[in-house]
Amino acid sequence: MSSWTEDELGVPGRVLPVVRAPDAVLSTAGAEVDPCAAETVQLAADLVATMRVSPGCVGLAAPQVGVGVRVFCVDVAEHPKSRTHHGTFVLCNAEVVEASRNEKAREGCMSVPDLTGDVKRATRVLVRGALPGTGETVTIATDAFEARALQHEIDHCAGLLFVDRAAGAHAIYARKTYL
Amino acid sequence: MTLHAITVLGHDRPGIIAETTRRLAELGLNLEDSTMTLLRGHFAMTLICAGTASDAEIRDALVPLTADGTLTVTVREVPEEHVDATDATPWVLTVHGGDRPGIVSSVVNEVAAVGGNITDLTTRLAGELYLLVAEIDLPSGVDVAGVEAAIRSAAANVGVVATMHPAETDEL
User: Fold this and answer.
1) Do A175 and B169 lie within an 8 Å CB cutoff?
2) N or C: which end of chain A has fewer CB within 10 A?
3) Is residue A81 part of a domain?
4) In total, how many domains does chain A have?
5) What are the record keywords, sorted (chain A) (predicted)?
6) Does residue B139 have a cis peptide bond before it, meaning omega lies within 30 degrees of 0?
7) Which ranges of chain B have pLDDT less than 50?
């Protein structure tokens, strides 16, 4: 997994505009995709390209670029809170198959740029999904920041935003600093 | 279009928010930011609403809420506030210990002394335990370790302990 790069997709990624709440695509469960379809491979490349040019962005899900399907990319390799990480990768139709050890942390999201919120998530997860292009099913065991990022992106694919998981009525804050 | 700050305070019962918001909706007011909590069992709600109704019209619409004398309502037009992005750093301050007068003022005085701004505050008294949790913005360039030491010292002077940690946001 760690050796995967977007070059394997074989198509150049395009930078797409990031949509913001309350766009309906962000609150609609994404459709399952064929990971081997050309359009899925192109979308995977586009997600990585868009993530790369977005300051501080460590993950991006298809609904965030206006496409209501279950595809996302992550790359937390350079993030100081990462422990285990798997570099850059894209997963299709991913699901959390095991989760444990919840911790609360404050999250921000490009699609909800003016708010942050405290969200409790598992710090250890097992995630299963398919790689775009080959369709190979992979299972990723990870922790800490990558675990949080994966759950945040899988939520996007299910039509859920971090505000849907707010830890309480007073756990949402106006953003004070922007990247 | 004008903005109005509305407060509703008093004896809690089911339906206060439903009745308040229904009456505001009937005036065509849009609820913007709001917060509500129970403070020692008392209902406490503040709303900022936008619309074309006047203060007097809003007051008249909400009068039935106060009919039994257990709730008070205030309505006041307020200006639009522009909150600019800031390079201040956000922190969460927690203070707890045995209850006594002056805990909040002692601690927050140290925040104000360096130009820090409190953006959210909750205090609770639970038995003998007094608890304060505040979100504070400290100006960039301020000596954070020095501020924290001053807060700890002020807290110790009134017999409580203070801790501060960054209100970090994980950008995802």
Assistant:
1) yes
2) C
3) yes
4) 1
5) Hydrolase, Iron, Metal-binding, Protein biosynthesis
6) no
7) none
Tell me if A62 sits within 8 A of A30, measured CB to CB: yes
Determine whether the interchain pair B171/A57 forms a contact, defined as Cβ–Cβ distance below 8 Å: yes
Whether residue A153 lies in the annotated active site: yes
Alpha-carbon gap, residue A140 to A142, rounded angstroms: 6
- Is the Cβ–Cβ distance between A141 and A129 less than 8 Å? no
Query: Directed axis angle between helix B16-26 and helix B55-62, to 10°?
Result: 140
CA atoms of B172 and B46, how far apart (whole Å):
31
**Sheet of strand B30-39, all strands in order from the earlier edge strand to the far edge:** B30-39, B42-51, B2-11, B71-78
Place of tokens 């868009």: A50
Q: Tell me whether residue A152 is annotated as binding.
A: yes
Q: How many CB atoms lie within 10 A of CB A100?
A: 11
| Those residues with Cβ within 8 angstroms of residue A22's Cβ, 6 or more apart along the chain or in another chain | none
pLDDT tens column, B113-142 = 999 999 999 999 988 989 999 999 999 999
CATH number for the domain spanning A73: value is 3.90.45.10
Interatomic CA distance for residues A156 and A171, integer angstroms: 19
Going along chain B from its start, the domains and CATH numbers come out as 2-78 (3.30.70.260), 89-166 (3.30.70.260)
**Within a domain: residue A1?**
no
**Chain B CA closest to residue A59:** B172
Judge whether A33 lies within some domain. yes
Burial of B119 (C-beta count, 10 Å sphere; 0-12/13-18/19+)? middle
Q: Which two tokens stand for residue A36?
A: 């081997």
What's the confidence (pLDDT) of residue A4?
A: 85
